[in-house]
Amino acid sequence: FDVTNQILKGQELLARDEETRGGLCAALINVGDEVGARIVEANVSAYDPRLQRTLFDLGFRPIAYGPAMVFHEWERLDVIKMIKLKAPYERGEMKLTEAASAIVSIVEKQFV
């Protein structure tokens, strides 16, 4: 838990079956509540749409795609960063290029 920024990062949410994984995702949110996190974050395999959907159904939203910088055997290990806001979204002041502003507007629509 990042106390300064109030961000809880879920790491290694591994389970044997779908039921257990859903419970782990819910537990992550509960821990976020307990520690007073404003943001709960999870990096999810880009190749695991069921886990992405579970997190989405729990209120997480995708904010970034991270292409792999490495391979494991023949597999790329791309990730999707997903967050759940536990506080109202505040855009704040950002100085962005036109292209970056277009991307930010797509992502922030999920949180307004």
Q: Main attributes?
A:
single chain, about 110 residues, alpha+beta, four-stranded mixed beta sheet, two-stranded antiparallel ribbon, 6 strands, globular
- Taken from the alpha-carbon principal axes, the silhouette is globular
Mean pLDDT, as a whole number?
Answer: 85
Strand order of the largest sheet: 1-2-6-3
Structural class: alpha+beta
Spans of 5+ residues with little confidence (pLDDT < 50)? none
End-to-end Cα distance, whole Å, is 25 Å
Number of helices: 3
The radius of gyration is 15 Å
Q: How many beta-strand elements?
A: 6
Largest sheet: 4 strands, mixed
Strand content: 25-35%
| SSE ordering | EHEHEEEEH
**Percent helix among the residues?**
25-40%
Question: How do the helices and strands line up, and which of them pair or pack?
Answer:
Layout: E1 7-10, H1 18-35, E2 39-45, H2 49-57, E3 61-66, E4 71-72, E5 75-76, E6 79-85, H3 98-108
Parallel strand pairs: 1-2
Antiparallel strand pairs: 2-6, 3-6, 4-5
Helix pairs in contact: 1-2
Outline the structure in words.
The chain has 112 residues and is α+β, with helices and mostly antiparallel strands. The protein has 3 helices and 6 strands, in the order E-H-E-H-E-E-E-E-H. It has helices at residues 18-35, 49-57, 98-108, and strands at residues 7-10, 39-45, 61-66, 71-72, 75-76, 79-85. Strands 1-2-6-3 form a 4-stranded mixed beta sheet, with helices on one face. It has a two-stranded antiparallel ribbon with strand order 4-5. Strand 1, helix 1 and strand 2 form a beta-alpha-beta unit. The longest helix has 18 residues, at 18-35. The protein is globular and about 45 Å long. The two termini are 25 Å apart. The relative contact order is 0.16.
